[in-house]
Design a protein that fits this description.
It is built from 16 helices and 14 strands. Strand 2 and strand 3 form a beta hairpin. The chain binds pyridoxal-5'-phosphate.
Length: 398
């Protein structure tokens, strides 16, 4: 390469300017995110910046992330299987621990196949990228998770977003593409991560009829809702064509699975690039996940405890219009402007509560909010104290 071409290249890149502009734009809007390392494990009490906080921001709904039975299971898994899986599942990364987890998931949720992924983000992307072709249409709830919306946009299919939980709007969009020659997929979350409300799965299914496949991402419903924690679909007595479950929330670990029929499972195993070209999750983790599944199924007390904490939380707060009523452990409090939401979160932090302000682009810019999550590991006293502190904080904002 000549010296002049090297000079030209270094001038035209401009990454430095791009990066500093993006960072300063975000900071000016009060939307910067910060990484704060917590000391110790994921318990209900976190130490951050030397301060003790009762953690109301995690998705560890059933309190499994720091449960001694589960920790022991992972340790046993390490003794049995060693550390890493060392290869893609289709090379040598797939072990009996993975196979057992897949079978347990299928039996619990009533599907022929389960295909494992290292994260919910990759499972969602794999599903849409593998299924969709140019002639297809994918219909997504407007509030679907970033992993789904991004995959829909990047896929070769046409993507249409329907109004949140609005079966009539979905129906009119389906009518619009009635003569489309490709296949159609309707994608929704079971429980919406930032709003905590549930998708009306039966109403959606009714308007879909046999016009499309229904796929449900139940990241926030699995383990929490339905008999034995089988999730949003079981709670509404519906079996979708495809179900995505993630393990970073109620399972207390990480990873994900796509549940489907046998031929879709074979198809994903062959063609889903996030499966084929990625190292399988550690076998010890798959082993621990099988234990987590058993705990979810058999330990109903965790869901009962969540219900008890929910009624304690709602008792004094339901009179505030910003406090949104939900049937799940996710409790949004809509504040509006990002600055106000950050101020409210800081006031709560000062009082010893780890509550996070959720701002744009995660939610619309005029709907910045506090997102309070309850877990079965919280105590009634912790929730009572939070709720009293929230009362004072919300009165201060009104
Ligand atoms: C609805 C939903 N789907 C998928 C994901 C991604 O899952 P994971 O964290 O396992 O990548 C998340 C969030 O984390 C989510 O809220």
């Amino acid at each position: 390469m000549s010296e002049s071409s090297l000079t030209r290249c270094s001038k035209s890149i401009g990454f430095d300017e791009r990066i500093s502009k993006a960072l300063s734009d975000r900071a000016t809007k009060g939307l910067s995110r910060s990484l704060i390392a917590s000391q110790g494990g994921n318990t209900t009490e976190l130490i951050r910046n030397g301060q003790k906080l009762v953690n109301f921001s995690s998705n560890d709904y059933l309190g499994l992330a720091n449960d001694s039975e589960l920790i022991e299971a992972w340790q046993r898994g390490l003794s049995l299987y060693g550390c890493g899986s060392a290869a893609s599942p289709i090379v040598t990364g797939f072990s009996s621990a993975h196979a057992n987890l897949e079978s347990a998931l299928c039996e619990w949720l009533g599907f022929e196949r389960a295909v494992l992924f290292s994260s919910g983000f990759s499972a969602n992307q794999a599903l849409l990228f593998t299924l969709l072709e140019e002639s297809d249409v994918v219909y997504q709830d407007k509030l679907n998770h970033a992993s789904l919306i991004e995959a829909g946009i990047l896929s070769p299919a046409t993507m249409r977003r329907f109004k949140h939980n609005d079966d009539s709007h979905l129906s009119s969009l389906l009518n619009l593409y009635e003569h489309n020659c490709g296949s159609s997929l309707v994608m929704t979350e079971g429980v919406f991560s930032m709003d905590g409300d549930m998708a009306p799965l039966n109403a959606l299914n009714k308007v879909i009829g046999d016009r499309a496949w229904l796929a449900v991402d139940d990241a926030h419903g699995i383990g929490v809702l339905g008999k034995e924690g089988q999730g949003s679909c079981a709670a509404q007595d519906l079996k979708p064509n495809v179900l995505v479950v993630t393990f970073g929330k109620a399972f207390g670990l990480s990873g994900a699975a796509i549940l489907c029929d046998a031929s879709t499972g074979d198809y994903l195993t062959q063609f889903a690039r996030h499966h084929v070209y990625s190292t399988a999750m550690p076998p010890s983790q798959a082993y621990a996940l099988t234990k987590a599944l058993e705990m979810i199924k058999t330990q109903q007390w965790r869901r009962d405890k969540l219900a008890e904490l929910k009624s304690v939380y709602s008792e004094n707060l339901s009179r505030f219009e910003q406090v949104i009523k939900t049937e799940t452990p996710i409790n949004p409090i809509i504040i509006g402007e990002a600055e106000q939401a950050t101020k409210a979160a800081l006031a709560l932090n000062k009082a010893g509560f780890g509550v996070t302000a959720i701002r744009s682009p995660t939610v619309p810019s005029n709907q910045s909010r506090l997102r309070v999550t309850l877990t079965a590991a919280h105590s009634v006293d912790q929730v009572k104290s939070l709720s009293s502190c929230l009362e004072v904080t919300l009165q201060g904002l009104n």
